Amino acid sequence: MQIDMADQNFDADAAVLAVLHAAFAGMNGRIDPPSSLDGMGVADITRKRQVEILLTARDDTRIVGCVFLAPHADHVYLGKLAVLPDLHGRGIGRQLVQAAIAAAPHPVIRLQTRVELVENHATFARLGFVEIARTAHPGYTRPTSITMQRNAG
Question: How far is residue 16's CA from residue 93's CA, in Å, rounded to a whole number?
């Protein structure tokens, strides 16, 4: 598996979007509100890549995983981590997170995971992330997301 900066072209952006849709499909009906991915197209991936770092995991022929890194003043936000469902359990997500930590331009890494996705909470805890906050999406009075953090070092 090769992890590197994504190619900057339409085909790569379309492949990243396809990986995201495949990986996030299992969340449909499980999370409320629905994922922001639902309204995203290839142009959104292109715009996102222009302001964030995009790392991809590739096998010999295709993009099989991805993660975005958004630099902020006091941390780097790790978002849209995705691996094709038929490749889950092979360590690709862990490799993407490790590469993201190595590439992060700030020592503090944060991410958010939905409250309902308890398997993600456990996975991120195994990768050294700890819960630091619970937040609600606009219009919700209950927590909908968990913010987790770890230091790059």
Answer: 14
53-64 exposure pattern, b = at least 16 Cβ within 10 A, e = fewer: bbbbbbeeeebb
pLDDT, tens digit, 9 for 90 and up, residues 73-132: 999 999 999 999 999 989 999 999 999 999 888 899 999 999 999 999 999 999 999 999
DSSP-derived pairing of the beta strands 76-83 and 130-135: unpaired
Full residue range of the structural domain in which residue 91 is found: 2-151
What is the pTM (predicted TM-score) of this model?
Answer: 0.91
> What are φ and ψ of residue 32, in 5° steps?
-140, 120
Q: Are 148 and 113 in contact (CB under 8 A)?
A: yes
- Check residue 126 and report its DSSP letter: H
CATH number at residue 143: 3.40.630.30
Query: Is 54 within 8 Å of 5 (Cβ atoms)?
Result: yes
Cβ neighbours of 45 (radius 10 Å): 23
Structural domain total, the chain: 1
In angstroms, rounded to a whole number, what is the distance separating the alpha carbons of residues 95 and 90?
10
CA distance 8 to 70: 17
Identify the burial level of 13 via C-beta atoms within 10 angstroms of its C-beta, where 0-12 means exposed, 13-18 middle and 19 or more buried: buried
> How far is the C-alpha of 149 from the C-alpha of 142, rounded, in Å?
21
